[in-house]
Amino acid sequence: MTRQHIGRPVRVSGFVGRRQETAEVKRLVAAHRLVSLTGTGGVGKTRLVLHAVPRLARAFADGVHIVQLAGVRDASLVPLALIEALTIRDVSGRSPVRVLIDQFQDRESLLVLDNCEHLADACSRLVETLLAETGRVRVLATSRHPLDVTAQHVLEVQPLATPTPGEPLPPKPAPEYPALALFADRAAAVLPGFSLTADNQDAVAALCRRLDGLPLAIELAAVRMRALGVQQLLERLDRRHRLLADSADSASGDVLPRHRTLRAAVDWSHDLCTPEEQTVWARASVFAGSFDLGAAEEVCAGPGLDRDETVDAVAGLVDKSLLVRDGDAVHARYRMLESIRQYGLDRLREDGGRAEAVARRRVRDWCLDFVEECQRRWFGPDQPELIRRLHAESDLIRSAFEFCLNTPGELRAGLKLAGHLWFFWFATGALVEGRYWLERLLAAAPEPTVARARALWGLALMLLSQGDAVRAAPLVEEARELALRLGDEAEAAHTYFGRGGALLISGDYTRARAVYEEALSRPPRAGESMSLVGFKYVELAHVLAIQGEFDRAMALCEEFRHVCLTYGEQWIHSYHLRILAFAEWAKGDQTSARVHARECLRLKRAVGDVFGTCMTLELLAAVHARDGEGRAAAVLLGAAKRIWQDAHAALDRSPSHGPVRTEAEEGARALLGGGFKSAYREGLDLTSDHAVAYALGERESAARPVLDSPLTRRETEVAELLAEGLTNQQIADRLVVALRTAESHVERILGKLGFTSRSQVAVWTGGRRAMRP
Q1: Are 564 and 574 a contacting pair, CB within 8 Å?
Q2: What's the pTM value of the predicted model, to 2 decimals?
């Protein structure tokens, strides 16, 4: 089975030319374990990679993983960025690099690292380690300069071909000269009906030569076709280029012509922006990765620029191709190409860095407000949407942490930010990232504050999830003592979950029960997290079920389930359903256990709770085994084992769960005999999503149908055209439909597949091609 994993792929417009380069990338990746695409800024390295990736997918049984590094500024974060982009949920407590090595140890995968130049040393070290420690992973990197790794093969991406001066053009020059084709394509997007003709093709050729065939420079110039003719474009660009060349020559004789060309195009684009657009361009350059409109308003608005003007400026920058719109029809996001972002940063730093410091502090403030709002709304119906947004803002949140750690006086804000994120790291299994930030901030800020108390018990929860009660227990006790000393009863109440959890993992059920009984004997404090109140009910019910008090355990679950239903909460609700199903199974009520375990799985899927999903799959396996359904039990056990293996988790984190798994396996083996191994292997080959679908009865067979697809025939046709890199207008032209019809097809495809970008569709389509007989 081909597994596709896409880490925040960027949306790209239609791809023009590069047929030979695409074939060369495929050939080099097949022949070498490390291929680096190099070239000057704006030459199209990222676009070439994203065009080539779908055509490489079929060669890698364990998937293609794209990791965008443009938003990562701190070199130490490179391994974490990969873990997050690959959605690795590891609970082993090992270093991030070790996690990555083991993830790729026996996998036949392609790892695509895009935009490595500002992290060259860190990327080189990580890639060299991965190549040395694994046998089958291959790496495709883009960077302005080669990585410092001996085993690499370098392909320098050249500008698009342009006609030489005085060379007569053929009747149809676009197929022979991709630079002209690109200009015509982008000009037609802003000036409908534009095409290369005998009257304009010489001027377009001269313009593309002046721009050295650089795709980014050509695209920036083509946008000006809204207001200018080709000849006017050429004259003004010539003037700008001469001024810049004279300035560069007087300052330094070693400025590369292509650098001057791109600078001239970007300079000219800047001059043609309104003052408001110039301000937003500069201030938005501090964003790491992509951002949404709300963040742009908070960070970019200020003296002389109100929020409405900021929104208008963002729209203007998108129109001028200086901001790229990502996301889907519902969730719009924006990003800058690295050359554009660096230009904006240079402008922002013209006052000695004061404006940059203000903008970065505003990013920090926005992140803190955003995360506080997510925490406030967490116990409610919006959990899946909040998780989606928190994942989308991960680059921005990391940049805020870096700012707090590296800026005097900001550590308390960093601790506060980390403390508010406990629920996200805990719920999604992002324990490696949670520990990384909490440990760094706690070491840097030892002052006795409420923020420190919360960070201490937050770190304890990360450790408990990794099975480390020895380290977690003293941390949670320190958090409790500090909270009591500071007079914060809510923070002290928050520590009950961790205190009882450390005892529960250690097998001390009697003392764990006493802690939870004490916790529930007191009403919730003002400001206490309802999620942690719910966990007190969960864990007391857990202990009671272990000790055979099934009726009281089920009553506790039902009591707090009503609270969850009232608020529309799903995450804590799923835990109550699992304990309820476990108690029912242990008592012998198979029918109720099956119903509640399946209901639990639906909620786990909605919030992305990886480890809860695993344990629930195994509980359902035990239900199937008792009901004489050996094959289903074996398939679910195999699927759960695959998830545990990917997370490098010990299987007996939960003390109640060992007997469940043991009975499920023994029952399935007794029912199937020699057929157990085959069914178990089927489960091992399932993705988590397919395993859940099978467990819920949404898929009759565990085997994944090769051509199973949610798309209609027409949508499948559109998806194939997206994989070719066609724009919406080109798709409309190819299918002879209206542009709006093509746009609607694309929006429906993104929605049905759960994707946010066209490149994800392209990789998915490539994977389907690979699975066809």
Answers
A1: no
A2: 0.81
